[in-house]
Write a structure and sequence with these properties.
The complex is a heterodimer of chains A (1073) and B (383). With 1073 residues, chain A is of the alpha/beta class. Chain A has seven domains: 9-124, Rossmann fold (3-Layer(aba) Sandwich), CATH 3.40.50; 145-208, ATP-grasp fold, A domain (Dna Ligase, domain 1); 212-348, 2-Layer Sandwich (D-amino Acid Aminotransferase, Chain A, domain 1); 357-522, Carbamoyl-phosphate synthetase, large subunit oligomerisation domain (Carbamoyl Phosphate Synthetase, Chain A, domain 4, Orthogonal Bundle), CATH 1.10.1030; 528-664, Rossmann fold, CATH 3.40.50; 673-706 and 729-896, 2-Layer Sandwich (D-amino Acid Aminotransferase, Chain A, domain 1), CATH 3.30.470.20; 941-1061, Methylglyoxal synthase-like domain (Rossmann fold). Helix content of chain A is 36%, strand content 19%. In chain A, the strands form seven sheets. In chain A, strands 28, 29, 30, 31, 32, 33, 34 and 35 form an eight-stranded mixed beta sheet that branches. Chain A has a seven-stranded antiparallel beta sheet with strand order 14-13-10-11-12-15-16, sandwiched between helices. A seven-stranded mixed beta sheet of chain A has the order 17-18-21-20-19-22-23, with helices on both faces. In chain A, strand 39 (1015-1018), helix 34 and strand 40 form a beta-alpha-beta unit. Chain A is globular, with a radius of gyration of 28 Å. Chain B folds into two domains: 4-152, Carbamoyl-phosphate synthase small subunit, N-terminal domain (Glucose Oxidase, domain 1), CATH 3.50.30.20; 156-360, Class I glutamine amidotransferase (GATase) domain (Rossmann fold, 3-Layer(aba) Sandwich), CATH 3.40.50. Chain B has eleven helices and 19 strands. Chain B has a ten-stranded mixed beta sheet with strand order 10-12-11-13-14-19-18-17-15-16, sandwiched between helices. In chain B, strand 18 (317-322) and strand 19 form a beta hairpin. The longest helix of chain B has 16 residues, at 345-360. Chain B is elongated, with a radius of gyration of 22 Å. The chains are: A alpha/beta (1073), B alpha/beta (383). The interface between A and B is large, with 56 and 53 residues. Chain A: Composed of two chains; the small (or glutamine) chain promotes the hydrolysis of glutamine to ammonia, which is used by the large (or ammonia) chain to synthesize carbamoyl phosphate. Tetramer of heterodimers (alpha,beta)4. Chain A: It holds the Pfam family MGS. Chain A: Pathway: Pyrimidine metabolism; UMP biosynthesis via de novo pathway; (S)-dihydroorotate from bicarbonate: step 1/3; Amino-acid biosynthesis; L-arginine biosynthesis; carbamoyl phosphate from bicarbonate: step 1/1. Chain A: It comes from Cohnella pontilimi.
Amino acid sequence: MPKNKELKKILVIGSGPIVIGQAAEFDYAGTQACQALKEEGLEVVLINSNPATIMTDTNMADKVYIEPINLEFVSQIIRQERPDGLLPTLGGQTGLNMAVELARAGVLEQEGVKLLGTQLNAIEQAEDRDLFRELMRELEQPVPESAIVTSVQEAVDFADSIGYPVIVRPAYTLGGTGGGIAGSEEELREIVANGIRYSPIGQCLIEKSIAGMKEVEYEVMRDANDNCIVVCNMENLDPVGVHTGDSIVVAPSQTLSDREYQMLRSASLKIIRALNIEGGCNVQFALDPQSYQYYVIEVNPRVSRSSALASKATGYPIAKMAAKIAVGYTLDEIVNPVTGQTYACFEPTLDYIVTKIPRWPFDKFTAANRKLGTQMKATGEVMAIGRTFEESIQKAVRSLEIGVHRLLLKGAAEIDGETLTARLAKADDERLFLVAEAFRRGWALQQIQDITNIDWWFLDKIDRIVRFEDEIRREPGLTRETLYAAKRLGFTDRAIAELRKEGQGASAAMTKEQDVRQYRLQQGFIPVYKMVDTCAAEFEASTPYYYSTYETENEVLPSDKQKIIVLGSGPIRIGQGIEFDYSTVHAVWAIRNAGYEAVIINNNPETVSTDFNTSDRLYFEPLFFEDVMNVIEQEKPIGVIVQFGGQTAINLAAPLARAGVRILGTSLESIDEAEDRKKCEALLRKLNIAQPKGSTVTTVDEAVGTAQQLGYPVLVRPSYVLGGRAMEIVYSDEELLAYMKEAVQINPEHPVLIDRYMLGKEIEVDAICDGETVLIPGIMEHVERAGVHSGDSIAVYPPQSLSEDIKKQAVDITIKIAKELKTVGLVNIQFVVWNDQVFVIEVNPRSSRTVPFLSKVTSVPMANLATQAILGKKLSELGYTEGLWPENEYVAVKVPVFSFAKLRRVDPTLTPEMKSTGEVMGRDRHYAKALYKGLIGSGMKIPTGGSIIATVADKDKEEAIAILKGFYRLGYKLIATGGTADALEAAGMKVRRVNKLSEGSPNIVDLIRTGQAQFVVNTLTKGKAPERDGFRIRREAVENGVVCLTSLDTVRALLHMLEALRFSSAPMPAFQA
Amino acid sequence: MQAQARLLLEDGTLFTGLAFGAQGASVGEVVFNTGITGYQEVLSDPSYCGQIVTMTFPLIGNYGITRDDFESIRPYIHGFVVRRHEPVPSNWRAQYTLDHLLKEYGIVGISDIDTRMLTRIIRQHGTMRGLLTTGNERAEELRERLGAAPLMRDQVARTSTPHVFSSPGERERIVLIDYGAKSGILRELTKRGCDVVVVPHNTTADEIRRLHPDGIQLSNGPGDPKDVPHAVRTLRELLGEYPIFGICLGHQLFALACGADTEKLKFGHRGGNHPVKELESGRCYITSQNHGYTVKEESVAGTELEVTHINNNDKTIEGLKHKRYPAFSVQYHPEAAPGPFDNSYLFDRFLDMIREHKRLNPERPRQAVLAESLRGELHYAQK
């Protein structure tokens, strides 16, 4: 029972959709918290708008509300549920902000809800810059000279007084949104203007730049009895200036002596005590590398991304402990779940080194500004554990899946010296590799340090890796000693083979990965697995949490049970998000339920799948062939399941199968048949299933010929894609040639697919098959027509506008394909409806992005059933029959959420290339209400009146006019530029004309900037160059928080929703004469 | 090519790694410390005298060695074991390397062995002796030497100061009995303005009385408290006469002086993350620890001691106080270095105790006492 007897029912607020700065770590935190509270016999009510999470599974809380996290809906739930307490510290900034809003609105007081964990004044003291500085002054904790401003002029005046560069931090924003470093007045004006707009209270902090100092973080916990501990400290490889979420981070700190470590530790404890936090807290410091001088940069009075990392780095479950503390427990009475015999009141100690590297979306957003600053840009991260820094970082690098498997970046050798210097000086996502490159060129360590400010210690290790590469290259034969030393430094067999090839020529021995592997196994060099146990082996632990290293003692206890390995999905990136972790976790649970031991391999520290409680054994390892094989050889499983880990796991299927590993579920041949475009086309032809005409080409000439033959517009993309990467609709030869040049490297090994582009309705189906029976839990209809990536479309379940015939066609085709592929497990099929006929666009022989959404809205536990099927159960035994699962009375919409505000220069237009980072669900009895909730939940502001700025391409005018007329009737004002205004007027509407950008100020962009419009409707005119007007309008809208709609389908849906939700006000009819 | 080093344990386990530090061979009790930072403070802590110290954190040497972080004039360890010796330090205070320090003091180091395996062996089998060598001796020869090596019992004498010296201050006079004291204790006392006189371990009670202390600080130190019976005798004499604060070995000696008993722990407590619960307040403190012996819980029962602190993990005694006299002690290290500063309040508590003692035992004006004694009159209080 909880210590605080007054608490019986607790409301937990989740963090909402995944956006840059707030990702899967809060699913991990929330899931742990819900479990911890339920363990105590408390009734848990959860609200989170994000359906792709484990925490929103109905077994995680007593009541789960997937509703928008805003004042209106949360208040409603509070009034309905009447909880005793509210736990706001596990839902990231969203949860915290919501709690503040509820408190300020008086809801908590009115309903008698107690705020748990962190009190309102602590949240304010930590978050409000002014209060924060005042508190730091009281505590005698240094903060950089700074001023709070609410106008650009104040900022400029202050910067003049302390000198440039200065850092701008908007108050109460996520992941540093709207912030940046300003080196000049001009830059300052721009950043501050932005920051003030982003800050919900219109406030920015202008701060003396301490860029270049060491950045160190402490994760601290405190209970109501004032017991305080530090769970972990971390040191950033990147000095202050790069957002910590965008920094390479190691745990524990490496270059701090005990004195410095303890000095900052004491400061952290002083701060958490002053804030009176009961739970977890994160304190960030800047430490002068040449003295004891330090500054407190930031305090997060809640569980954070860093605390998820710290939990995985140490094994200490911070969120779980925070939840227990929030309901009254003290650290000294909570058992440390890792050892089971010691208590949570101690400080974990590590006997390994952890490296985290962020995963950025620049592979998809090639136009984005890759420079790293105070605004976070990464979508996810990988973590690796090793006994040396070299081993740890090399493991992390090959976990990234960015086409790099060691500290070598393709094309780096061609960068000229000047560019290299510049790129080393101003960090971007590739700096780590460029440091290695500089060492390869023989640059002195001191020189690189002067340019980068990266600590000597880290540089020395990178240098050592580079120097060891030379040793491998130079050696005529690969000696035993060198091989072992290389393995201990984290070199893969593939890297060793490559290096030997570089140094000794392709004909030399040991220049192929298999040969090195063979030789290594002959020498008996196999990794051992060590346990992550929070205590450096001081106490016996039973945590099934392991990492590999090349040493003597292996700690994995042999087990006689039958085992199954599930491959995770690696770092979160656009196109492969938390949805895959959701399915992975369900697969693991299903395996355990079936009586097998479930073993998971994954490298993402943010997720539920890498919680060591999820599986029987967790191997925190790169999802790289060699590392996965090593685990397989250690575990000797019955087989490996690849279909839940997204493309990451699917891509490992072939090499694993070649190495003799049994792939469970849908066979490798079938996977290939679905994934390989040519084979898939043949399959569909054979089954007599319609597909858009298209073909696979391997040369530019062939591409042009095919496109002309199909007729423009055509859809082009490389084969084996993830999240529609580099997919585009092209309208002419010129565009096609430009695409071929910029977006893809075409060759026979990397063919490009060209399809006729059909502008029809898209629908999507996920199905489960046991090889015999095909169960289709539901059909989803996309609001946006083909041409917008399915992950970026609003999906509706059940379909609102499909005829029974179309549904039947989709169901029949799905059954046919699933059976033909002898699918065992999940399959996802995407269709386009064209002239009342269903065409297949894509077959994905694996778990898809929509599995959690569809599972939740249909109550069919899809990943669970799929796993049972993989394990040999028949759907019929489980009580399911073939065909479409009956639809229910609720309508649910899945609305994508984007992070455009964080990514400068990225065009917010919806295209075949996926851009969204997350999703929310809206669910209600009526479509309009469900859509309203979805849109609101996604962060859209939908005023019932106001102005709409419209600029549409000529090809869209006719369609657009009809829709805008609807808005006009609802009372919205229309603002338009020349052509669109003419068209609107011609259609009989009043329009406010506004200048195009070229027509001088005030123009359309000024209007957006000054907040005179609530919606922007802009359709794409061709060309993506930033100078185009459309691009600037869209960016301006995004950066000013104005709703920007680029697909007329979305606009139409919005209109219908507004019409449906609006009470009609009609004049009374006149008396009959 | 770096030379080889080997570490042989009593149970026969032989680790082969790389040599660093000095050449040679030495025997010692093999222990492990779980601190991530603080290797310099650890290896210069006299309490490790005669021990071969293993650091469980794998990367050691990262921030080098600095003049300022020594906990004694010289290290007394018999060997240093690390997974990886980082030869290139990076820290603004680093003056030289770990390797250099070990060479300077003739300490043998071994790196590149599976230190986690070694730690697990010690955890499972308890502390045992080991032989660390950089030579080429045959395995049997090593075993013989390890078996023949005598047990060290004079660690306190080796590490204690041979002479009295003072560290002047303006406030209370504290006699610090040095059983192998860490500098941190002196640092904490002088930081508080104390006038500290450091005396050797075998200083008699009368010699201490002659220094007219306000309080007596018992330091930490190496080895088995029962190896220094003279210290226990001295304490017995002083008990009740002066306020006493004991740390680590000083705590154990205080317990013995009060009639309690001590015993050896299986593998000791060494690290900076040990939770200690203060029984009176229920508060838990993170402490720095380094001890292989502990006060037996059941032995406290018949004494005038009261247990004030326990280890929240294994529930062993971490703090005692005398029920009648102004005297208390802790098993852990409030002076930190290495480790958290969370417990430095204990020094304030000691000084408060001294002041309270003075308040309760007011001195008569000194000149009056002096005059009376010169006249041969007995002071009433001395009756």
